[in-house]
Amino acid sequence: MEPAESAGELYVSYKPLLFSLAYRMLGSVMDAEDIVQEAFLYVNETKLDHVQNMKSYLCKLVTHRCIDRLRSASKQREVYVGPWLPEPLIADRDPDGEPSRSYLHKESLSTAYLLLLQQLSWTERAVFLLREVLQYEYDEIADIVGKSSTNCRQIFHRAKRAVSGLPDPRDGQPSAAPPARGGPHPSQEQTGDLIERFVQALTTGNVGKLLDILSADAMLYSDGGGKVTAAVRPVQSAERISRFFEGLMAKLPEAFSYRLADVNGQPGIVCYSGKQPVNVISFHIREDRVHGIYIVVNPDKLKHVL
User: Fold this and answer.
1) pTM
2) 150 φ, ψ (degrees, to nearest 5)
3) Containing structural domain, residue 42
4) Looking at the domain assignment, is residue 194 inside a domain?
5) Rounded mean pLDDT for each run of 10 residues along the chain, 306 residues in total
6) Are β-strands 256-263 and 235-236 bridged in parallel, bridged antiparallel, or unpaired?
């Protein structure tokens, strides 16, 4: 370790990067925070004079810990009740684009994108994120994941085809999930305006206005994890989603409230019963329409939400 870099300085310099990597790997805010803390504790307690590149070394520690965590949780995922969605990451707006937050405000943080990453194997996910999001060279990625640079290049291109929703020439099958980047990507302002129109349509019970906002083939995913009532299958089409929300709004408690917030780098909604968060809603917007709605109601995934 370079003498000028104390444990505290390393933490300040690399925590945003490492959290960004871990969260995208796992889809869990709490697990990502735990793994980053574990990595820094290890560095603080271990003699690392042999380490030449601390940034790559920390990424390697975090990547391996993420793969271990995914491997141990794979059985739980197999028996998960209903759709699985990532834990929502709630963040304040950062209009000045501070470098410390730059890793957290990219399209690759969106719920739709994270769901596409779930299609990849653990190693594919690591290689893809290190190259596509963090801009690592193949030689660096090879050292982190323990494979040759040529192999990493092949893994990356296969993963990129899968995430783009394009067919892989070796199997001829398209991605199961819709591409996260199809169509023109709206600005934060356009997305925020559309979400405000969405909320207004819901709170006023204006079904016609809601139908105008939703694409005809929109999909709604609700993650209750078997802990609370949620739709165990995706809800498809604008009309069915409108009926779903009509039923939902009719059952709201008197102490219901909501606030607009950045959810996974995009405008979203946090809903409360009293002071308790009860769900977080994020969206996939394309061509000025809502194409995907993601509702996390699993209380285990809302423990970190304020």
Assistant:
1) 0.87
2) -65, -45
3) 1-79
4) yes
5) 64 92 95 95 86 90 95 87 95 50 62 92 95 92 95 96 63 41 66 91 89 95 94 95 91 89 92 95 92 96 94
6) unpaired
